[in-house]
Design goal:
Biliverdin-producing heme oxygenase; 64% helix; Haem_Oase-like; single chain; Haem_Oase-like_multi-hlx; 195 residues; Heme Oxygenase, Chain A; mainly alpha; globular
């Protein structure tokens, strides 16, 4: 994040710093599996992504979060990834239990959203990779497609909404913990696919 971005988005910058190590570790664990080397590898990657997106789907239907993120429901990619799996003739891995919003504070839930929404930024690069397998936004890689208004614009809107939240210092710590918990869960779900 540039110094200008850090100045304009101090909360987001702190989120990035707080989760950098666990984020990098997750990326490395995924990439060592060569998810774009073959359709089978990509299918495993899709199954992991489905587990994660299915787990967090309640966030996108949350009445608690909706007032702060106007387009929340439309950001949900769970249906798209289910169609991608269907395109490849794959069944989704037996879904794990979905996140229980009753166990999360608003700040923790936003920390989770930060991780899932942030993953869309890397999807632009991954969408190019997957074309080598003959897949695209219409077949097999719907969940990697950007929104109509563009990834950058949607991410800026998300960042602005997070910065606008009225959080106490305790809430801030819950926000960071929520993001760390989301990455920890992603690691656990990855291990289910790549055991």
């Amino acid at each position: 994040m540039s110094s200008i971005a850090q100045e304009n988005y101090p909360r987001m910058s702190q989120l990035k710093r707080t989760t950098a190590e666990v984020h990098d570790d997750l990326d490395q664990k995924i990439m060592v599996q060569s998810p774009f080397a073959s359709k089978q590898n990509y299918a495993d990657f899709l199954r992991f992504q489905y587990l994660l997106l299915n787990h967090v789907e309640p966030l996108y239907n949350s009445h608690q979060l909706a007032p702060f993120f106007a387009d929340l429901a439309s950001r949900n990619r769970c249906h798209a990834i289910a169609l991608d799996l269907q395109d490849l003739g794959m069944q989704a891995h037996t879904a794990t239990q979905q996140i229980n919003l009753d166990n999360l504070t608003l700040a923790q839930a936003v920390g989770w959203l930060y991780v899932i929404e942030g993953s869309k930024l890397g999807a632009a690069m991954l969408a190019k990779e997957v074309t080598q397998l003959g897949l695209d936004a219409d077949f097999g890689a719907r969940f990697l497609a950007g929104p109509g208004n563009g990834r950058g614009s949607q991410w800026r809107e998300f960042m602005q909404a997070v910065e606008a939240l009225d959080l106490t210092s305790n809430d801030e710590q819950e926000l960071y913990q929520g993001a760390k918990d989301a990455f920890a869960t992603a690691h656990q779900l990855l291990n289910i696919i790549y055991q």
